[in-house]
Design brief:
Layout: H1 2-24, H2 29-139, H3 150-165, E1 176-180, E2 184-189, E3 198-202, E4 210-211, E5 219-228, E6 234-243, E7 249-254, E8 272-277, E9 280-287, E10 299-306, E11 316-317
Antiparallel strand pairs: 1-2, 2-3, 3-5, 4-5, 5-6, 6-7, 8-9, 9-10, 10-11
Helix pairs in contact: 1-2
């Protein structure tokens, strides 16, 4: 703006030169000097303003140059930062690819490990089953000798002792005791021999009535027991000793219905097991007709029953 003003002033001054020349002759010398001095003062003032404007412009140019240098430096820094970001992006991309590769390998290794663990578990299960079978084989009862072992005898005699102590004939709460010899076992309450409630059975048993008779994975021994209430009357019952692996024994009396006809009676003795085929027992019983004496049944009956293998349950007719 100042430049335009100064140029305009110079133009006016130059244009007015001709007018000054025309009036020059008309003015006196004194006035001419005054006018000339005014013009010189004006020129000097305009020169000073022009110089001042040039200085300001130079300062502005220097400021612009400084700003340009700062902008260049900033652009250089930004370029470096962009290059650094690009380098980091490439590294991140490489790391991402490596991570994906590692994850893929880990997944593959994990699947392989799970597969091996599954195989090991299967092998371990098979080994456990084999070990259990070996233990079972080691604990399988050998029934070929047809003789109760000491542990079995101890369990059976203790079972009968408990039965006697709770017997209805034991009003005096007598103690029970066992007598064992090489062939016969007697468990009775204290009292005169032959007049105290008692159980009698043999050390030996029928091997055909021993084994897994009910097909439940355990073993059974069915044996015959003579019982008395303390007088002349005696009767016979079959008992079952179940032999488990781990939980050794369980025992119960076998009850089965009389196989005789409705018009006949089995009496005190319900029957005898005469044959065993798998879990099928053949029972034979003497049958009393109406006119038969108590000592002498005149008929008999035979029937087959499926062995349940459950405590104190009757035989089921096949």
């Amino acid at each position: 703006m100042k430049k335009i003003f100064l140029l305009s002033a110079l133009f006016v001054f130059a244009f007015g030169g001709d007018l000054f020349a025309q009036d020059y002759k008309k003015l006196s010398r004194k006035k001419l000097r005054i006018e000339h001095q005014k013009k010189l003062n004006l020129i000097d003032s305009l020169s000073q303003e022009l110089n001042s404007s040039n200085v300001e412009n130079l300062q502005k140019l220097n400021s612009i140059d400084s700003l340009s240098q700062e902008l260049n430096l900033s652009n250089a820094e930004n370029l470096q930062k962009l290059n650094s970001i690009d380098s980091l992006s490439q590294k991140l991309l490489l790391l991402t690819k490596k991570n994906q590769t590692i994850q893929s390998k880990l997944k593959s290794n994990l699947e392989l490990l799970n597969s091996k663990i599954s195989l090991l578990n299967q092998e371990l299960t098979i080994e456990k089953e084999i070990s259990q079978k070996l233990r079972d084989l080691a604990t399988i009862r050998d029934f070929s000798d047809g003789t109760f072992n000491d542990e079995e005898l101890a369990f059976i005699t203790n079972y009968f002792k408990i039965e006697l102590k709770s017997n209805v004939y034991n009003e005096e709460e007598r103690e029970s005791k066992a007598f064992i010899d090489s062939t016969d076992i007697q468990v009775s309450l204290e009292g005169e021999a032959g007049y105290a409630p008692a159980f009698y059975f043999k050390r030996n048993y029928n091997t055909s009535l021993a084994g897994d008779l009910d097909k439940d994975g355990t073993h059974e021994i069915i044996f015959n027991v003579e019982e008395t209430g303390g007088g002349n009357a005696v009767w016979f019952n079959y008992y079952c000793l179940k032999i488990f692996n781990g939980n050794p024994y369980e025992m119960f009396q076998i009850e089965f219905p009389c196989p005789c006809k409705e018009s006949e009676d089995c009496g005190d003795t319900r029957g005898w097991i005469v044959d065993v085929s798998g879990d099928i027992l053949t029972i034979s019983s003497s049958c009393f007709l109406e006119d038969d004496a108590n000592c002498c049944p005149s008929s008999d009956a035979t029937s087959k029953y499926k062995f349940d293998g459950k405590p104190r349950l009757s035989m089921k007719k096949k």
